[in-house]
Design brief:
By secondary structure, this protein is mainly α. The protein has a single domain (about 5-395), classed as Up-down Bundle (Sodium/glucose cotransporter), CATH 1.20.1730. The protein has 17 helices and no strands. Helix 3 (about 45-70) packs across helix 6 (about 115-150). The longest helix has about 50 residues, at about 155-200. It is globular and about 65 Å long. The protein starts with 5 loop residues before the first helix and ends in a 13-residue tail after the last helix.
Length: about 475
């Protein structure tokens, strides 16, 4: 057992200091909101690709996904097949609509089609969902920090939030994207190191690990079951995961904002589709780590699945390596948190503050955006602290995905009505969203054991579209004729 020593602390502190300073430096010479929130649409698609993956990864992937494989099989990988398929749909249908005009947020598209009321409604839903889901993510990050330092969870959360907000406040989206790219490389390096270390810690290495896992049925990837209560089946992965990706990467400002920083539609498509391929490989690596941990700990029981990999990092790795992997945990956490803060501030400034004040001054939007950055950082930290007494042995990644899936169907349905339907109206779309989100929430509360969370987005989308079309009447204007922002 190595513990966390002086060398590890030096590695971690050096990483945190360098990341914070570099991110703040990247934001120099910003002149307006377009710089701060969109990087003047000049960011290279390769960096955006890495940022998209890092943003959706978070500490939950780094810590929770190995725990999923530890307790189960490789079935979670089925979701990634849907994630890639969903991106292909977004690249074909939604990205062209975003690039027809100078849109600043995802919800400006709905504003152009249905008016400011629907724009504000969808933006508000995004804000509430992002606040809840990312509060869970931030809490998960405090687990390894608390193990390392002995600090209570609230203090650990405050330290992570404070460091992240510094470079997010000063650096804006440019800092977020470039720091994300570096952070992704770091946490993948951490996972690769864990794979190598497990080779030496388990008798017989990975040959023995895979042999034991195969005998226990843990190498199974495909599950052809039609049971809607099982979260990881091929159908839940392709359909549920596909609709989840369409919603998260086509309607969530957290990801759409990054895609809008590319110079044109072609670059944005490369970033989006490439990120889908990268995610498949990334999840495979983290699931593989989980199998190695299962063999190393000999299927030992833990209080929480998210604790397994964190405890391995702190207790079993040699000096310096522990510090590097803890830095990887922070990298995953800070990339997602900074992205959330910046996207929430962007929606606040462009979807609410600027229209309400009748302001189109880019310099004033920049100042307001920085203020919103501080406000949302405080709310996310507070939400993470409030989640502490609610946490259980359930994997945090599954909690966060379930929370997001409650509303993603309503958002995706609204975008489908706006882009594809000629009959949809603002009132019908709003009614459809309420019906879709309400139905899925009722299922989650009343029948959680009958319908698994990967189906939530598909159900919510279908209900939103059906109700929206029914209430929308016979409006005949084509989406192509909708006013552009």
């Amino acid at each position: 057992m190595s513990g966390f020593g002086g060398v590890d602390l030096a590695v971690l502190v050096a990483y945190l200091a360098a990341t914070t300073a570099w991110g703040a430096w990247l934001g120099r010479r910003q002149r307006g909101g377009a710089d701060y929130f969109l990087g003047n649409r000049r960011l290279p698609w390769g960096a955006v690709l890495l940022s998209v993956v890092a943003t959706e990864t978070s500490t939950l992937t780094f810590l929770s996904i190995p725990g999923v494989a530890y307790l189960g099989t490789l079935g979670f990988l089925q979701l990634t097949f849907g994630y890639l398929a969903g991106r292909l749909v977004v690249a074909s249908l939604l990205l062209p609509a975003y690039y027809r005009g100078e849109l600043k947020t995802a919800y400006a598209l709905l504003g152009a089609r249905f008016g400011s009321g629907v724009r504000r409604l969808t933006s508000a839903i995004f804000m509430v969902t992002r606040l809840l889901a990312d509060s869970v993510r931030l809490f998960a990050t405090a687990i390894p920090l608390a193990l390392v330092t002995g600090w209570p969870y609230p203090l650990s959360i405050l330290v992570i939030g404070a460091l992240t907000v510094v470079y997010t406040y000063f650096g804006g989206i440019k800092a977020v994207v470039w720091v994300d790219a570096v952070q992704m490389a770091l946490y993948l390096l951490g996972a690769a190191i864990a794979v190598v270390v497990l080779q030496g810690l388990v008798d017989g290495g990975w040959g023995a690990i895979l042999s034991q896992a195969g005998a226990a049925g843990k190498l199974r990837i495909l599950d052809l079951s039609l049971d809607f209560s099982v979260p990881y089946t091929l159908w839940a992965g392709l359909l549920g995961g596909g609709f989840l990706a369409m919603a998260s990467h086509g309607t969530d400002q957290l990801i759409v904002q990054r895609l809008l920083t590319c110079k044109d539609l072609a670059a944005s498509r490369r970033a989006l589709i490439g990120s889908g391929v990268a995610v498949v490989g990334q999840f495979a690596v983290f699931l593989l780590v989980g199998l190695g941990l299962w063999a190393f700990y000999e299927n030992r029981a833990f209080a929480a699945s998210d604790e397994i990999f964190a405890r391995f990092i702190v207790e079993e790795l040699p000096p310096g390596v522990t510090g590097l992997l803890i830095a990887g945990v922070f990298a995953a956490a800070m990339s997602s948190l900074s992205s959330s803060i910046n996207s929430l501030a962007s929606s606040s400034a462009y979807d609410f503050w600027a229209p309400a004040r009748g302001i189109d001054d880019d310099a004033r939007i920049l100042r307001a955006g920085k203020l919103f950055t501080l406000i949302w950082a405080g709310l996310l930290v507070g939400g993470a602290i409030l989640f502490i007494p609610l946490s259980t042995g359930t994997s945090a990644v599954e909690v966060a995905l379930a929370v997001a899936s409650l509303v993603y169907g309503g958002l995706l349905g609204a975008f489908a009505l706006g882009v594809l339907s000629r009959r949809a109206t603002a009132g019908g779309t709003a009614a459809g969203m309420v019906a879709g989100i309400g139905t899925v929430t009722a299922i989650w509360i009343l029948a959680p054991d009958r319908v698994a969370w990967p189906w939530f987005v598909l159900i919510g989308t279908a209900i939103t579209v059906v109700v929206g079309m029914a209430v929308g009447g016979s409006r005949s204007r084509s989406p192509a004729e909708a006013p552009r922002p």
